[in-house]
Amino acid sequence: MAANAIRADRGTSMIDRLRPVSAVSSSCKICGGAAELYGVVDFHKSCAEAQGVRLPLSGVPIYYRRCKTCAFLFTDAFDDWDHDQFKRFIYNDGYLVVDSDYVSARPRANAEAVARLWDAHKAETRVLDYGGGNDVFCAVLRERGFPVALTYDPMTPEYARRPEGKFDLVTCFETLEHMPDPAAGIALVLEHVAEPGLVFYSTLAQPADFEKYGLTWWYVGPRNGHVSIFSKRALTLAWGRYGYRTVSFNDDVHLAFRTLPSFLAHLSKIAEALPLPS
Ligand SMILES: [Zn+2]
Predict the structure, then answer these.
(1) CA distance 87 to 93
(2) How many whole angstroms from 44 Cα to the centroid of ligand 1?
(3) pLDDT below 70 — which residues of the chain?
């Protein structure tokens, strides 16, 4: 069934729906800097290639641009798609072939980490998981005694209703890289964050030696819907636009906040060392 879904993705019907590529420089979606064409990969390039899963070539070229100022890497090929086209061509039955951890392994591991970090404060922490896909992450938190842990994901019908109110902790795992308009996407995430409040998020930022790999880097996966690949600088600018600082634990796991909640005050030394972009 998955193989059929992948085959069904191929063909000109999809090409016809892509934004035509232009060799003219365009504006970076994060900082407005000049973003030239950087490279091109087949639509079926996926993150699963890192595990040896290689889909047949689709024949659909996907061009990426990279900003000269902030190094944000992005494609605008899908920028004219609506929700239904993303569901049809990317988030379909074939998606699980290229992101097999999506269903259970990753959300469980993330929930264990959050439950550990927030254990002493869980009674007063309202949690929203943004872009969670399914409710596995929040179910684990509720089992661990978090009184409020809700899932919101516009791509999943059962969880597509926007929640009411603000949340002390908004988690957002492996989501930013899927956003065709990440600045607008971050603004939507921030609508749900209390003040003080935290966003605990993951997206894999380009490594320091990214240039060595270019678009062969495993995380560049259009079949996974990875349309927005951040640099650390691009993350700083993207959150900074809304007055938020971001602190990275590593290339993948980050916090964003305006004011640190008191129980995380020990992190402020790290935060103060970071410039807040104007
Ligand atoms: Zn930029």
Answers:
(1) 9
(2) 26
(3) 1-12, 102-104, 263, 265-278
